[in-house]
Design a protein that fits this description.
6-stranded antiparallel β-sheet; Alpha-Beta Plaits; 333 residues; RBD_domain_sf; Double Stranded RNA Binding Domain; disordered N terminus
């Protein structure tokens, strides 16, 4: 079968049930970058988005279960502002989703009602509080761009920026990368949308904006020399803060992931790491795969690490980097 024909042949009955449901209810589902979203805001919403603490993580979902079952279920305990289902290219879900409620009470009710709830006989799901991200990376800044200039631009086009830290870009020669921290997930999301839609340029170079990846964060924090950091609040410069703490030691990071998987009844993670590239400056590129029994789809992808000491293989550091990424995907970093 051709790839598209094979994809369309997967789970046809439930896909048709979903299509029928969307037509009957008039609900719009939008799929972007591996996730399918309802709402954000939903039809008829008036006012500001919900505050922090209103989103829950939903894990251990059957892969052939869709929004026609999940949205009515989670709406039964409170008004949904947004529902995001993580998807594979075949049209199956990845086994987890996020539901954001109109208030914190709805999120608490969802956790109380649906954690360990059997959506099918023998299929108990996990529902717990989601951790919302507040940091962005801005890569591709010209080396001539100063901290003051970047701060002035960001304060003009975004709201809620708390700190700006400049680094030498690990991906582009003669360029800088900025880590931006915002006051809330919503402020960071709005800033990301504004900066991406604006095709922002500083110093003649095109800038790429994305959520700060834990692997990149760990790589930046491990650099021996860092340019100074500027903290801003209410338009006033507060001076240079103390250097950021080093990332957690390996055992702490792995313990956090193991504890999270135990808390969500997902099983013990299995790590597979393979070095695929070595740079003269000591950085190693690994291809990593993490298999978690309760997640139907493994987590996999590349990461860069630098061994802690001479002669180190880098495998332990790669484990730490990919563990941070998995924690981030699961909403715990």
């Amino acid at each position: 079968l051709l790839p598209q024909m094979w994809t369309n042949s997967i789970n046809q009955a439930n896909k048709m049930a979903l299509l029928t449901w969307t037509k009957e209810t008039g609900i719009d589902l939008v799929q972007v970058n591996g996730q399918r979203r309802y709402g954000g805001p939903p039809p008829g919403w008036v006012g500001d988005p919900p505050p922090a603490g209103t989103e829950v993580f939903i894990g251990k979902l059957p892969q052939d279960m869709y929004e026609n079952v999940l949205i009515p279920l989670f709406q039964s305990v409170g008004k949904l502002y947004e529902f995001r289902l993580m998807m594979t290219f075949s049209g199956l879900n990845r086994g987890f989703a996020y539901a954001k409620y109109s208030n914190r009470h709805g999120a608490k009710e969802a956790i109380a009602a649906f954690n360990n709830y059997e959506v099918r006989q023998g299929c108990a799901i996990v529902v717990c509080k989601s951790t919302e991200k507040c940091e962005l990376s801005m890569d591709g800044l010209a080396a001539s761009v100063s901290q003051r200039e970047l701060e002035a631009v960001l304060r003009r086009v975004t709201e809620g920026v708390l700190s700006i830290t400049l680094y030498a870009s690990p991906c582009q020669k003669w360029a800088q990368l900025a880590v931006l921290r915002y006051s809330s997930h919503q402020a960071a999301a709005m800033a990301k949308k504004t900066l991406m839609e604006g095709s922002m340029r500083l110093g003649g170079l095109e800038v790429r904006v994305d959520w700060l990846n834990p692997s990149l964060k760990q790589k930046l924090q491990s650099c021996e020399e860092k340019p100074p950091s500027s903290w801003v609040q209410g338009g006033k410069r507060l001076g240079v803060p103390k250097p950021a703490p080093l990332p957690p030691v390996l055992c702490d990071t792995l313990d956090r992931l193991n504890a999270l998987c135990q808390r969500r009844y997902l099983g013990t993670p299995l790590f597979l790491t393979k070095c695929i590239q070595a740079n003269p400056n000591g950085w190693l590129r690994f291809w990593c795969r993490v298999v978690i029994p309760g997640c139907p789809v493994p987590f996999r992808g590349p990461t860069w690490v630098r061994p802690a000491g001479p002669g180190g293989s880098g495998h332990e550091e790669a484990k730490m980097a990919v563990a941070l990424q998995v924690l981030w995907v699961l909403g715990e970093s």
